[in-house]
Amino acid sequence: MLKKCVQVLAVTGLIVAGSSLCVSAAGEDMQKQIDGIMAAIPKFAVPMREVGDRFQNMYFAAEGGNWGLASYMSKYMDKAMNPAKLTKPKEYPAWESFYKDDFAAVNKAIAAEDKAAFNKEFNAVIASCNECHVGMGYGFIQVKKLAAPADQGIEYKLSSKATDVPK
Ligand code: HEC
Q: How far apart are alpha carbons 13 and 102 in whole angstroms?
């Protein structure tokens, strides 16, 4: 499009004055496309559904001694929030510090394959999940522990090591 503009303006002899206009028109077009892409990338609500499911699954994996699966669930629970780095740059750091600080004890228990510690820390961190919900105006979304995993199609009672997750 830019090339076409420059050609037209060159013919009319206005290339110097006109080319900047064309550049800004092309820039606007690109901005519209970027805005369109940004609007299509999930913000918090969609990845939070995945966070919720992976969080619940993690519990049953640890319970079943499938530490590789528990570790995997934790890793991808965090990665699920990546789109928010782009779409919610102001809010994303709150998630980042939650995972790095509040969730560290859960990750530590998984790494240690320590069921008792995992149980304690998993139950305790639910309050931090909900604190963030309250803080961001979503106090009506209260996480509770499920009686069964969110995803039924995985074997939770498979013995594995936390270090089994490929890098
Ligand atoms: C950084 C703050 C923050 C943290 C930490 C956080 N959440 Fe959320 N969560 C939100 C926000 C904000 C929403 C509402 C999404 C929206 O409308 O944008 C939400 C929504 C949800 C939902 C509902 C999703 C839906 O639309 O069905 C679930 C489930 C959820 N969170 C689970 C969790 C769990 C489990 C944890 C802890 C492991 C957690 N959240 C930690 C901010 C947070």
A: 64
